[in-house]
Amino acid sequence: MRRDFEEPVRPRSEQVVGRDEVLRRAREQLSRGGSLLLHGPPGIGKSTVLRAMAAEYAESARTVLRCSATESESHLPFLALVDLLGLVADEVADALPAPQQAALEAALTGRAESSLHQDGLALRLAVLSVLRALAAKGPVLLVADDLQWLDAPSAELLGFAARRLGGMPVRMLGAVRTGTEPKEQEHDPYLRAYPPEALALRLPPLSRPQVSELLVTRGYTGLRRSTLRDIHHTSGGNPLFALELARALAESPTPPRPGEPLPVPTSLRALVLSRLELLSTEARQTLLVASAGARPTQTLLGSAGRTNAEAEIALAASLGLVAAPGPDAQGPDGQEGAVRFAHPLVSAALYAQATPQERRAAHAALSTVASDPIERARHLALATTGTDERVAARLSEAAALARDRGAPSVAAQLGLLAARHTPPDGGPGADERRLKSAEDALTSGEIDLAREVARDILDRATDAAVRVRAWMVVIDSAGQAMADVEAVFPQALADAGEDPQLLALVRYQLAWRALLVEGEMGKGREEAAHAARLAAVAGDRSTELMALSFQAQMETLMGHPAAPATLEKALAEPQDLRVACDHNGAGATRFRWQIMSDQLTDARTTITRLLGEVRRRGMVESEVHFLRGLAETELRSGHCARALDLAHESLRLARDTGIGEAAGNMFTSLAEAAGGDVHRALVLAGDAVRRAEDDGDLIYLSRALGALGHAQLVAGDAAGTVQSLRRARELEQGLGIFDPARGRWHGDLAEALVLVGEPAEAQDVITATREHAVRLRRASVLAVLDRAEALVKAAAGQYEAAAQQLTSAQDRLAQLGYGLEEARAALALARLRAEQSGRVSYDEATRLFRRCKAVPWLRQLETASATAPAPADPSAMAPESLLPHLDRLASTERQVAGLVLEGATNREIAARLFISVKTVEATLTRVYRKLGIRSRVDIVRLAAGQRRGE
Questions:
Q1: Which conformational region is residue 125 in: left (phi greater than 0), alpha (psi within -120 to 50 degrees), or beta?
Q2: Cβ(536)–Cβ(499) under 8 Å?
Q3: What is the rounded CA–CA span in Å between residue 337 and residue 350?
Q4: For residue 332, what pLDDT is reported?
Q5: What's the burial of 891, exposed, middle or buried (CB within 10 Å: 0-12/13-18/19+)?
Q6: What is the DSSP letter of 405?
Q7: Which residues have CB under 8 Å from 459's CB, separation 6+?
Q8: CB count, 10 Å around CB of 726?
């Protein structure tokens, strides 16, 4: 069909969440003039996407025809045809032949008995003629929801017409329900009502972050990460199911206890369990036991007393309640006959429908036959009512085992179960077990749960050690927003009293407070040193190592001469393995030292090992940090695509857990500016700046401003870069950060200052930064500063010296392994040579940027190559020969003046020189002032006068 539809302006729908890829493909298809069929199981969001697409494209269509069938009306013939054509048929009916008019009127009004058998070809041709006549007046859009309920005569008529509308501006946009399990050709019958070459798109389940976003948009905020995980698992990523589960949770007077499933509303139970009545009582009991198990198999069910499990599971599979077991289906430990429910909601609904006594019986049966000790302990707890120290001890042992296996989230749940079953007069107190579960929740990234449990402990605990550790959980759960827990510190100090071990814990947190809240790096270093001494006196090696690591980080950033010695102390034996791989521990400090000292290979080895270890231990917060660290290493090495993938992986995990999202946005911005999309880089950096300002986090604010300034430079906004990076410079000077390898924005600031015509300030930045870089032996920083200084020299007309310095900088960056910075030096050298000789060649820079997969920089080169001027004609007006006055101008000012002589507009000048239009305007203002003129026309007059010898 002909493409007579304009692609619409698309406001982002607040109702469509997690469907960017589906929407992209749908828009491509519709923009080509094609038709679209959306399909998927009930509740997956077909109607939501259908409405969004129909709203987008309705304005570009002259006629919009709609129908939405229902199951109760699917037996009524021609009902969909009435919905589609009932209001528009009169518009074109007079042009139809009499037999077609009569047949169509009978079908639409029902006043005379009509059928496809009776009216046959006349009715088919009438529908085709109406659609052709409407299309002749303008584009037609047909929107049909729930095609599975379309009455058969209407479906046949639409199919007849659709196959014969080739070349006409008619598009169909429909949705149909298909099964939960994707099956090939399941949607094919519905494509018969579509024009040829229609696109069928299946809507996949939403990911966990997308379910979280959906719930937030619908007002379900403040849900714990563990709750979001349960909603995603139980719903199977189905948007309708997720929303119904969240609604039931919000309406429930008491939330589910640890180990218990989510409440399943009656509406969803009826939806998935309508076939349960066809099963015997014994078969339903077998399915209940399967729903209570973590990894049920037919063998396990038989051991739990379900003697007819194989036959009962086969019957349930025939009813669609469980997936038919394949010949190779195996459960844990190689057991055959794994039982998999058709949808997680079936299992949840079965369990929710059972009585408490039935559930306890199912868990009791599994508590003795489950192969895994953790699973056996969990079943024992859920089968037991009241307190029982034997059960509590089993659960504590299981929690320790889960912790050792790297499953702190499971350990947290088991710990809370242990606390619930602990008698008031038992051995280890319930508060101690709750506290351990809070610490496990913190490790696994379940920040809200950790904070909630810690606050609950503080409401009743009297033991000083328990209270101080609980305060530590509250402080840690605040993350970067430590200002939000200001009132905690005096209470924690009061509870610590004179105990050196407890005081060490509090002093360590005060070191972070000094850094994040007060912006006092020196004070943070002193508090960390104090904490390390107290911990050493108390024999608390873990806290001592954490404090020494923090002290070493501060000294590194400050350029303090004691940094290497302090780092050596933090790395000395004996070590605590968990502390060694913590994101604030000695291993992370060593990585930071290596990457700041240009030891990229060693840094990659260190961070890769740390990442593997924290993943094994389930330390989610550390995983977020180490993914970002590995991304930074790849970015420094010029592996831009790899860095971008890692940065996005870290950011997804940060958003999923609520850990360090501001920092994630900051670094992902740097990765996007290097290997992705510069517009996304600007958005991410701007968000990072706002978040850091809201949190009062001056440390990350300077980093975020560095990322924003870099993105602005890549985008061609030199003036914006100067504004952002001047602010970063002031912040870091105030914070006492003197190591330029920390933020690495100094070369960008100097380069931007040259572009805006401030070479003197650029040289000041270079000179001041170089002093620290030389003292700290930051070789890559020195090479980047030399690259920037070459631009200062070029602006002063010292082309040969600039070229030599750029060549040297490029060679040194290559030797150090900084691929992207090497490519930037090659680009600067190419521009300098073009300015000297007029011959433009970006071949070397292009080769290096391609090697790095630096997409934004390659786009710049494509633009530069496309707009590069032809080789200069000796007889043409050369600005330097025609205007001796230009000798007084800086390099960028001469370039802008020369392009004005060529007749370029401000926007064209900005594109050629990779600067913003505002920068062009500011540069021209300086040119006018230096030449004593008022406008760009005066530049042309000066040139013409010089040529005439005036």
A1: alpha
A2: no
A3: 20
A4: 43
A5: buried
A6: T
A7: none
A8: 17
- Cβ pair 628, 684 in contact under 8 A: no
Which run of H or E residues covers position 142?
strand 140-145
Q: How many CB atoms lie within 10 A of CB 864?
A: 21
Q: d(Cα 294, Cα 363) in Å, to the nearest integer?
A: 11
- Amino acid present at 65: L
Written as six digits, the tokens of 758 are: 């401030």
What is the per-residue pLDDT for 933? 77
The token pair that represents 26 in the structure block: 């749908």
Cβ atoms of 306 and 387 within 8 Å: the answer is no
pLDDT digits (tens, 9 = 90+) for 268-298: 887 777 777 888 889 999 999 999 998 899 9
Tokens of 770: 């170089």
Of the candidates 417, 450, 419, the one whose C-alpha atom is nearest the C-alpha of residue 434 is 419
Contacts of 479 (CB under 8 A, 6+ apart): 447, 658, 659, 660
Give the pLDDT confidence score for residue 118 in this predicted structure.
60
d(CA 436, CA 430): 10
As a residue count, the chain comes to 950
CB 651 within 8 A of CB 476: no
Q: Which amino acid is at 360?
A: R
Q: Let me know: does 180 contact 320? Beta carbons within 8 Å.
A: no
List 176's β-bridge partners, or say none.
39
Among the listed residues 58, 1, 49, 4, the one whose alpha carbon sits nearest the alpha carbon of residue 25: 49
Beta carbons within 10 angstroms of residue 536's beta carbon = 16
Report the b/e string of 272-285 with b at 16+ CB within 10 A.
bbeebeebeeebbb
Bridge partners for 145 per DSSP = 68
In the numeric block, the tokens 């007029």 are attached to 838
**Is the peptide bond prior to 574 cis by the omega test (within 30 degrees of 0)?**
yes
* Alpha-carbon span 906 to 908, nearest angstrom: 5
Token pair in block for residue 728: 């970063």
Neighbouring C-beta atoms of residue 423, cutoff 10 Å: 12
- What is the CB neighbour count within 10 angstroms for residue 425? 8
Q: What is the rounded CA–CA span in Å between residue 871 and residue 739?
A: 45
Q: Are 762 and 800 in contact (CB under 8 A)?
A: no
Q: Two tokens at 165? A: 């509308």
Which H or E run includes 175?
A: strand 170-177
Backbone torsion region of residue 518, taken as left when φ is above 0, otherwise alpha when ψ lies between -120 and 50, otherwise beta: alpha
Q: Six-digit token pair at 267? A: 């509406």
Residue from 423, 481, 476, 421 nearest 450 by CA: 476
Distance CA(416)–CA(422), nearest Å, equals 10
Alpha helices in 354-463 (DSSP H): 356-366, 373-383, 389-404, 408-421, 430-443, 447-458
3-state secondary structure of 367: coil
User: Which positions of the chain have pLDDT values less than 50?
Assistant: 1-3, 7-14, 327-335, 870-883, 947-948, 950
Using CB atoms within 10 Å of the CB of residue 798, give its burial: 0 to 12 exposed, 13 to 18 middle, 19+ buried: middle
Helices and strands counted in the chain (H then E): 49, 5
What confidence score (pLDDT) does residue 883 get? 46
Which one, of 742, 842, 747, lies nearest residue 786 by Cα?
747
Rounded distance between C-alpha atoms, residue 139 and residue 62, angstroms: 5
Contacts of residue 350, defined as CB under 8 A and 6 or more positions apart, other chains included, come to 273, 276, 284, 287, 288, 291
CA atoms within 13 A on the CB side of 737: 23
DSSP-H helix ranges across 430-560:
430-443, 447-458, 464-477, 488-496, 500-516, 521-538, 541-558
b/e sequence 634-648, b meaning 16+ C-beta within 10 Å: bbbbbbbbbbbbbbb
Residue 273, phi-psi category: left (phi > 0), alpha (psi -120 to 50), beta (remainder) = alpha
Q: In the beta sheet, which residues pair with residue 174?
A: 37, 144
How far out from the chain centre does Cα 665 lie? 9
Q: Dig out the tokens for 307 from the structure.
A: 């003697």
